[in-house]
Design a protein that fits this description.
Layout (H helix, E strand, L loop, with lengths): L11 H11 L17 H16 L3 E4 L5 E5 L9 E5 L13 H16 L3 E2 L3 E5 L13 H6 L5 H5 L9 H7 L15 E7 L4 H5 L3 E7 L1 E10 L3 E2 L11 H18 L5 E10 L5 E2 L2 E10 L2 H22 L2 E10 L2 E2 L2 H14 L3 E6 L4 H5 L5 E6 L15 H19 L1 E2 L1
Parallel strand pairs: 3-5, 3-6, 6-16, 7-15
Antiparallel strand pairs: 1-2, 2-5, 4-17, 7-14, 7-16, 8-12, 8-13, 9-11, 10-12
Helix pairs in contact: 1-3, 1-12, 3-12, 8-9, 10-12
């Protein structure tokens, strides 16, 4: 198939204006956004996106998980569509770009093709996946997970938020539960543009990340049990300090991750200490270890070493321990043809680039199970994301969307 000419570029000003307009919906308290999934603010953002898509001549599809599919027709009615998109929902203290850039970058592709009267053989479908963030209704990447057959729709509908409200009920309440069967769509390919959410591209001065893999993830819940007792009157040799045991295990987690550097990572981000009182030695500590690597064998090694090492620590200290795997997914290798299309687009446009492994989960990781998939990444300032201070430059957004457009249009095939 013929590659687009290097002078084919999106309208960077229009893309940036769209990002800023969407950011007005569900503003945060510190310059970012709080547009959590299936809230009223999410519904308002969806309505604006639909308005823009229809103005660009697209037709909107909506499935039973609320995922939005805006279609621009191709010249061949039998050709499978090329899909492009990400998500519009945010963290409670989220930024203006995480997810949103990928959706509005897809919209900008269509606007640019319309401006230049360029037709493609394959239809192009711009997608907004529901509940990628998974903050209000866990797990993350929920709708794409149902689409890919990783979860059942009934199970997803019955997930409750902290207030006891069910996902399916809230989706219906805001008016965005469609009739289309989830996962019925066939795809020629899927592309997702995203901010890196890490510091590598900015630190190395690269314009584009060509994402070759997505890290696998393993969540292990560890419960260490000791004996609650007075911090002042319990002699040191007679203590069964679950807090100290947990601390030693956390050091073990760090050591295990470092042993697989530079690609593997590990930490515990969630911890509950009981009774959590200043003058009581902890009797129980519950925490979740998060190991990630692009290699399944590495994840399995880290899990095994944690299980053995943590038990040794607790046995030596006279503590009890329970270990339970509570979540995870295998590493993802993106489609070689789609990855090459992204890399060639960056080369053709003269943007500096490097191969990259995504440390975060994305909808593309699930859709990769259904269709050839690849991701494009652009830098973000200090690698900061899931934070209202998340920031990118207009130039980074433009470069990412340019590369996205070339990869999508080459795959969708320009009709001369």
């Amino acid at each position: 198939m013929a590659a687009p000419g290097e002078n084919l570029k999106i309208n960077g000003e229009r893309l940036w204006d769209s990002l800023m307009e969407m950011a007005k919906i569900g503003p945060g308290i510190a310059g970012g956004n709080n547009r959590q999934t299936v809230t009223d603010e999410d519904g308002e953002g969806r309505a604006l996106f639909q308005k823009w898509c229809e103005a660009a001549g697209m037709t909107m599809g909506l499935d039973q998980m609320g995922t939005m599919f805006a279609r621009r027709e191709g010249t061949d009615p039998d050709a499978l569509p090329v899909y492009v998109g990400s998500h519009l929902d945010t963290q409670p203290t989220g930024g203006k770009y995480d997810g949103v850039l990928g959706v509005l970058g897809g919209l900008e592709i269509i606007r640019t093709l319309n401006d230049l009267d360029i037709k493609t053989k394959h239809p192009i479908v711009v997608t907004n996946w529901t509940n990628e963030e998974g903050t209000r209704f866990a797990p993350a990447m929920l709708a794409s997970g149902v689409f890919a057959g990783m979860h059942t729709q009934d199970w997803a509908y019955n997930i409750e938020d902290a207030g006891g409200k069910k996902f399916g009920d809230e989706l219906a309440r805001i008016g965005w539960r469609g009739d289309e069967e989830v996962g019925a769509r066939k795809m020629h390919a899927f592309f997702e543009l995203h901010i890196e959410q890490g510091p590598i591209l900015e630190a190395e001065g690269k314009d584009i990340g060509v994402v070759t893999h997505g890290q696998g993830l393993s969540w292990t819940q560890v419960t260490v049990t000791g004996k609650e007792s007075h911090t002042g009157s319990t002699p040191m040799p007679m203590r069964k300090n679950a807090g100290l045991g947990a601390a030693k295990i956390l050091q073990l987690v760090d050591d295990i991750a470092w042993s697989h550097a530079p690609d593997a990572v590990g930490a515990a981000g969630h911890m509950d200490v009981f009774p959590n009182s200043r003058n009581v030695i902890p009797g129980r500590v519950v925490f979740t270890v998060d190991f990630r690597s692009p290699t399944l064998a590495t994840i399995e090694d880290m899990e095994a070493r944690l299980a053995v090492g943590a038990k040794e620590i607790c046995d030596e200290m006279g503590l009890g321990i329970e270990i339970e795997k509570v979540g995870g997914f295998d590493p993802v290798e993106f489609d070689e043809g789609c990855v090459t299309a992204v890399r060639n687009a960056a080369e053709r446009l003269g943007y500096s680039h490097r191969d990259l492994i995504s440390g975060a989960g994305h909808d593309a990781c699930w859709i990769n199970r259904k269709a050839p998939t690849a991701m494009v990444m652009c830098p973000c300032v200090d690698g900061l994301s899931h934070n209202e201070a998340e920031e990118i430059s207009r130039e980074w957004a433009t470069a990412g969307a340019d590369v996205l457009m070339h990869a999508v249009v080459e795959t969708a095939e320009i009709v001369k």
